[in-house]
Specification:
The structure is a homodimer of 661-residue chains.
Chain A lengths: L2 H9 L4 H9 L2 H15 L14 H22 L4 H12 L7 H14 L2 H12 L5 E4 L15 E5 L4 E5 L7 E2 L10 E10 L2 E11 L12 E5 L12 E5 L2 E4 L9 E2 L5 E2 L9 H31 L18 H36 L6 H28 L12 H8 L9 H20 L10 H4 L22 H29 L3 H7 L1 H26 L3 H21 L1 H6 L5 H18 L3 H6 L5 H4 L10 H10 L10 H11 L3
Parallel strand pairs in A: 1-5, 2-5
Antiparallel strand pairs in A: 2-3, 3-9, 4-8, 5-6, 7-8, 10-11
Helix pairs in contact in A: 2-3, 3-5, 4-5, 6-7, 8-9, 8-10, 8-11, 9-10, 9-16, 9-17, 9-19, 10-11, 10-12, 10-16, 12-14, 12-16, 14-15, 14-16, 14-17, 16-17, 17-19
């Protein structure tokens, strides 16, 4: 082990293993996760050349090969539980993606949520075994966010009992679905359903796109890869154009809505139920934000412990860069954020399952809140993690720009989460819609439940943005509960400002849509403040569950740092709302600097607790053995440009210039 | 032309051509720039396949080929003026880099700055013609920022009158120099000079690394590519290890310091002069930040004008996404920033030349300020542009993730500017050192010149961070001059806080280095506020030079937006300093929203004025013809994965799974 890392680990005030158990949920989970990870680490079939040295086409091929092996191995190892599948896949992929990913994350779940029993019987087994390789084709070249704007049509022909699928324009070409370009032979296609001369809106259809056995596109289908992207190189995101392409009536997913053989449309009992998959994926992305940021922190903090540079005192040895206050100020708030998001991710997962069970029993009461919360937290955590990962990368100096650090791949693999499954600004506005509705309910005397219940507590009379009295309680900057209160007041204030501005616009304009648009910056601000409050609250509450004193102290410091850092960044909100005074903000800034020093001895142990095997596999800088520079040199030698001593371009292009010498 | 873009251009209130002349510096400059750009656009030798579809090795080869052609063509066209060379190269490269770039940007300038006349005679001509291909090898695997920590040694041997170069450790291996991996045959190597048993610190040596004619590494030289990176794919950033490698005494650059044949060391007259190249490159990077951000804004704003999505009013056609307030709030402050940085970049360039002329005549008085200003503004503008480019990318929805948008390549080509030529945090601390020195000078009664002269105006007694009186003047949020004053007060306050905290740490600790480290977060904050003030000031002053009324109005709105947006983002500073009140901040936020509406009709014309030909060439979304979707489809079809109907991986890995079906 690298001597610096050994020293860091020896100086920790707590046992990181115990934190790992908290993050995994239990000792048993940690044990089982490691068992599964070791299966991969010890299996020669999973060893392969570093993706970074391959061309896109080679990467795609390796990824397909790994997917095929994975299916075989999961069966062999008996891995079927969703958590176990995730552990298995995450380590096996090491910061990358897989061309058959959507078969499991979208095709099968949609089939389960929206297919009839007969449809599940027909397609489920073969898609689980990858004989049918499915993807999910919703987004079109010209249409993403606005589902009603999708142009693909499915017109029912009662004579043949078929749907005729068409992509009537260039903008209607399906664009982006993962695995569509080269890999899939089926797609669930979202299309505007026309029957008996009427449009019934978007419905889902199972569409065969390639022939089993030859894999050639079927007649009427034009399909291919959409070209190189920022990351996702091993994924064949694809396009799909359909021309009078016929599928049997039975290929419409009919668990909810139906088209009868004669073309009669039967509408679904409840429209909301079809959003299930989307809500699930969004709540999953909150956990992904936590995971990716945690991994970037692991690499950046370990590297900062190993890297020596500059002088604090002249003549003395170069210190670890983790001893520079500016480096701590860059990384420790991000580490605290990673922990905050870990707990939020866990909460979202548990909440989704709890509410989903309720839904299964017919209780839809919590669905609006769940929808608003997943939308907002998806946006809040992915935006934050997105810029935080880049900050981690840039905190690694020059080496952060090399793929040897692993962070560029974490970033490019993560950043689409800000856009897919609901563009973040649109998500924030969905949360805002719920907040405005809740605010109106309080105004009309209703008592609210759940995360917005704080809107009950505070009579609106008390807040006049322009002329506020000092809040009755003084914020205790060392108390997570008191800081949670401060964030609550901020959220309340920004929700109220947005509501009042929306009201003011409504009183000046004709339509509520125009008013909404003209208030949307305030609305996003309100949603962000609401989400920030929820994150601080969940982190603060989590502390009560921690038994071990040594760990409680450490996590409490992270929780306070997370909260204070947010206050420092958004000081204007806290000052404008008279939630805190200028001198309190100065104390906050001072306390943050003190906390950096307090956290410093535990920094490496805190990232060790994330227990990433793939920060080891996927990055030279994050390796446990810590021989960063030797490893880096060995890694670099494998660069494809080093395969020949003299590159052919010398003889072709440069030598001719030298003949004149 | 796309009908949306035509409509936008028709609705502009000013003639963008006039703004282009301002940005270029004169009508003549614009004309000459376009002449040069047209040479490239019309020359079939510069047409090549889209880099995005090539492997790294192919990209490298195309880049070398283009470099060779470029040398030939520039001679043919008679392009020798530095500005003209830049116009030529920038268009020819289209968001990419070139393996021989450092020959021109570092090798030749260093030879000119530090070489004797005899040395220039020996190497200059052949390096200009690319017979000698040089690079600049300073950074080592284990050492970047801290130059004294570099480990490479050059030991003088008077017996043979040679220097013996050594890379004594793994960490001492030269790492990162562009073009070193495969392309260069010479490098200027920075090494610790040892002669007569004593170390005299870093000096520069011309080191042949490959044999002319065969291009094979010379004996004693180990050289290669450092492997794949986040961007810079066509660049062979390299490593260099030297083992008892001998070069003649004459290969030490001896314009300033010298080693006599007997080994006697003659020290340079003035140490500061060797920093010339570095200051030049940093001031150049300010312009690069402006250029890259302007290009990203061009693409994102044109795309937002062409893209229709969602509904503002139900049933009406989908609006241009540029009509959404949230989209305007994302992009227009960035557009204003791009303009601000354009003017700062121009100012830095002019100031560099002015002061450099002074230096040529022996006047070093302005050198400390120039050094501090370039360091701080390099950091301030590159950090801002870095995150702003990503915001532009994410404002393009899904298509921003595709290389068809051009923005990912702008980003990865630009982002290293945050780290190279001085890591940004280190740069900010260098500026802070100058600010602290200036502050002390005022305290001891000295009157300051230049950008820090505001420290004269404000007696320190007036600022007590914790208990301030209201500032005498009320900020007029519509006046660039008044806003500049507000930024000045903020800068003054943060400089003072940093100075007082530094003083307080000094009174508690023994060493001033420890005190410096423990104040460094405050110091960076002070530097940022200083730089922000300088940018606002320069933008505000620029307005006075504009004659045309219609243009003055438009640029004034951008200047006010830039200033107000910064106040909104850093509201805490303005409130804590009692520079503005809470209700004024509320007015600022309201005024920003109004300005978005005011700027909206001119948005496309404002990016047209940047006059980027390569936003057209390098991006489907930024094209003038605006047939975004048709172009995108044509582009995607060229993806290498589309070269075969069925990828070989199907037969190898997926078909076996289907045999069971």
């Amino acid at each position: 082990m690298n001597p610096d890392l050994r020293k860091e680990r020896a100086s920790a005030t707590f046992n990181p293993e115990l934190v790992t158990h908290i993050l995994d949920g239990s000792v048993q989970n940690t044990r089982r996760r490691r068992e599964i990870e070791n299966l991969i680490l010890n299996d020669p079939e999973f060893q392969h050349e570093d993706y970074n040295f391959l061309t896109r086409s080679q990467r795609y091929e390796v990824a397909v090969k790994k997917s095929a092996i994975m299916v075989k191995k999961m069966r062999e190892y008996g891995i079927a539980d969703p958590d176990e599948i995730m552990w298995f896949k995450k380590l096996q992929l090491v910061n990358f993606v897989e061309p058959v990913g959507l078969n499991y994350s979208m095709f099968i779940p949609t089939l389960l949520n929206q297919g009839t029993t007969a449809q599940q019987e027909k397609w489920l087994h073969s898609s689980q075994g990858l004989q049918i390789i499915g993807t999910y084709a919703q987004t079109e070249m010209g249409h993403g966010t606005h589902l009603r704007g999708l142009e693909t049509t499915a017109t029912y022909d009662p004579k043949t009992q078929e749907f005729i699928l068409n992509s009537p324009t260039v903008t209607s070409i399906k664009w982006w679905p993962g695995g569509l370009g080269k890999t899939s032979n089926h797609a669930i296609v979202l299309a505007q359903l026309f029957t008996q001369g009427k449009c019934y809106g978007l419905h889902a259809f199972i569409v065969p796109i390639r022939e089993i056995g030859t894999h050639k596109p079927l007649p009427g289908i034009t399909v291919g890869d959409i070209g190189p992207k920022f990351g996702y190189e091993e994924m064949d995101n694809g396009y799909l154009k359909m021309d009078n392409y016929r599928i049997p009536r039975e290929n419409m997913l009919m668990k909810h809505a139906q088209v009868k053989p004669d073309g009669t449309y039967v509408k679904p009992l409840n429209n909301k139920l079809t959003y299930g998959t989307m809500v699930f994926v969004r709540s999953f992305l909150v956990g992904e934000a936590a995971r990716c940021l945690s991994k970037a922190c692991t690499i950046a903090i370990r590297y900062s412990a190993v890297r020596h540079q500059s002088e604090i005192k002249p003549g003395e040895p170069e210190p670890q860069i983790l001893d520079f206050q500016t480096q701590q100020y860059k990384l420790f708030p991000l580490l605290a954020t990673a922990y905050a998001f870990q707990f939020v991710g866990k909460y979202m997962k548990d909440t989704y399952h709890r509410i989903n069970e309720g839904i299964g029993q017919g209780d839809l009461s919590e669905l609006p809140e769940l929808h608003a919360l997943t939308a907002g937290l998806k946006a809040f955590t992915t935006w934050t993690a997105n810029s935080a990962i880049e900050e981690c990368r840039m905190a690694c100096g020059g080496h952060g720009y090399s793929h040897s650090s692993g962070i560029p791949n974490i970033y490019v693999t993560f950043t689409p989460a800000c856009t897919f499954e609901g563009e973040n600004t649109v998500m924030m506005l969905q949360t805002a819609r719920f907040l405005m509705k809740s605010y109106d309910q309080v105004q009309s005397g209703k008592l609210l439940d759940g995360t917005v219940s704080y809107l009950n507590d505070l009579p609106s009379q008390r807040i006049q943005p322009q002329q506020v009295a000092v809040w009755p309680t003084v914020v205790d900057i060392n108390s997570p509960e008191s800081l949670t209160e401060a964030y609550k007041l901020r959220a309340f204030r920004l929700v109220e400002i947005a509501a009042k501005n929306l009201q003011a616009e409504l009183s000046h304009r004709k339509s509520k849509e125009v008013a909404w648009n003209l208030t949307s910056v305030d609305l996003v601000r309100a949603s962000e403040a609401h989400c920030h409050y929820v994150v601080v609250k969940l982190f603060s509450e989590k502390l009560h569950e921690i038994q071990d004193k040594s760990i409680q102290v450490v996590l409490r410091n992270l929780c306070v740092l997370y909260s204070l850092y947010g206050i420092s960044q958004k000081a204007g909100d806290f000052l404008q709302g008279n939630i805190m005074t200028g001198s309190q903000i100065a104390q906050v800034n001072q306390r943050i600097l003190e906390l950096l020093t307090v956290i410093r001895p535990n920094a490496v142990a805190l990232v060790d607790a994330f227990d990433f095997k793939d920060a080891t596999l996927g990055s030279v800088l994050g390796r446990y053995d810590g021989n960063v520079y030797e490893n880096l040199f060995e890694w670099a030698k494998k660069s494809p440009l080093n395969k020949t001593e003299v590159h052919r371009s010398y003889y072709k292009h440069l030598k001719p210039l030298q003949s004149k010498l």
